[in-house]
Amino acid sequence: MRVAVILTLVISLVGVAVSAAPPPPALSAGDEALVQRAIAYLEGLSSDTGRFEQTDARGRMIGGAFYLQRPGKARFDYDPPSGLMVASDGKEVSEIDRRLKTAHSVPLASLPISMFLARDIRLDRGVRVVQVTHDASTFTLVARDIHHPGQGEMALTFTTNPLALTGWTVNQGRNTSFTVRLIDFHPSAPREESFFEIRNQRPGPAGGA
Known about the structure:
A hairpin with a 6-residue loop joins strand 10 and strand 11. This protein has helices at residues 29-44, 113-117; strands spanning 47-56, 61-69, 73-78, 84-89, 92-97, 102-107, 127-134, 138-145, 153-160, 163-171, 178-187. Mean pLDDT is 81; it is low at 1-21. The protein contains 2 helices and 11 strands; from the N terminus they run H-E-E-E-E-E-E-H-E-E-E-E-E. Helix content is 10%, strand content 41%. It is mostly beta strands.
């Protein structure tokens, strides 16, 4: 399972077209309150870690370790036998496949994940929340880049009590959706900046970060 599926949050290199939707209806006052609560929570995250499970449109699942260091930095280390690592160093998002011995990078600013990693999260400009769904214990914000509708939609899901990010779903069109579920996501000690600078690492054997 390629990670050009993961960080569009993630990587939009596939260029799948998604039909432009009509302007969304205005959110209710209650929904706006949930949006603001989610923004405050996300901006309050700093150095965190946990496990993740990523499932694609065909139901294939792969897991790994997730590291977050806002603003700007995140890293996904996929479990063996996958040789994948994906990381943002604040400027670029890089992908290394140790098994295939390949590597490539794209500017962070060109990807939807940039809004999640930004110091100040704005969901009322280029990226807009178009729908809020909720039940007794969770709520989900569906966000869309209003200037680039072809990039699809991203849905962030939170628990309400306590407030916590539990994962996200990215929909880029037919057979290109994927869901990431966070497990045991919790604060951690800050890591050196070099931990997120994988673009300069030489692809090698799989089996470790």
